[in-house]
Amino acid sequence: MTAATQSLEPSTPAPQSQWRRLHRLSPFVSDGQVVTAFTGAVVETVRGHGSATQFALVALAILVLLLLASYVRYLRTRWCLDGQTLRIETGLIRHDHRQLPLKRMQSVDVIRPLLARAVGLAELRIRLAGAGDHKARLAYLSEPDALALRAQLLAGHHGLDLATPEPGETVAATVPGGRLVGSIVLSSCGSSGSRR
Question: Which listed residue, of 10, 137, 153, 171, carries a Cα 20 to 30 Å from 39's Cα?
Fold first, then answer.
């Protein structure tokens, strides 16, 4: 092939960002609170009823359906960071495709609930500036992935290269322990004296 023939051929498109999934433990962590409450209700009900076997089988079937629905939701959720936009696709019946421009991001928070923290996961919550429902979440990613994605989103928001690392934290002020305890004691004494 000559150089002239190469220039006439269509150029190959730039590779699109790779779609990624949530962490594989996400279905169990996201519905962990519901399953725990449901299990507690089943145990309490089984203790008070005579037909415990039938009730336990129905409860087990409902629990399996909850976990199956959560797993399908996990399979149908994916995300990618494509240039200056975070794209999130969710839903099986009602397909939701969100495009979150990095320039409009108001806050990017890493949330670590108790059950997620126990297995090393974190949720990424994103809020956009503007009116309406401009919130999105990725629940759950591994904690290092969530922190890395947060750093990329913040770098893109400020117009920096996405590979720019997040700046380190700086201490704004320190308060000695004794002064903190003293202020708590004095504030509680002052508030109890004003209630007379």
Answer: 137
Q: What are phi and psi of 24, to 5 degrees?
A: -65, -15
Residue 160: count of CB within 10 angstroms of its CB? 12
pLDDT tens profile 68-89: 888 888 899 999 998 889 999 9
- Token reading at 101: 């421009």
- Residue 162: count other Cβ atoms within 10 Å of its Cβ: 15
Token pair 């590779």 is at which residue?
15
Rounded to two decimals, the pTM is 0.70
| Structure tokens given for 47 | 């203790």
* Domains of the chain: residue spans and CATH: 20-157 (2.30.29.30)
How many CB atoms are located within 10 Å of the residue 69 CB?
13
| 8 Å CB contact between 135 and 128 | yes
> Nearest Cα to 66, choosing from 103, 84, 41?
41
Residue 141 corresponds to which tokens in the numbers above? 């990613």
Q: Is 27 exposed, middle or buried (0-12, 13-18, 19+ CB in 10 A)?
A: buried
Helix residue ranges per DSSP H, the chain? 3-8, 26-30, 32-48, 52-75, 114-118, 143-157, 177-193
d(C-alpha 38, C-alpha 5), whole Å: 67
Distance CA 54, CA 69 (A): 23
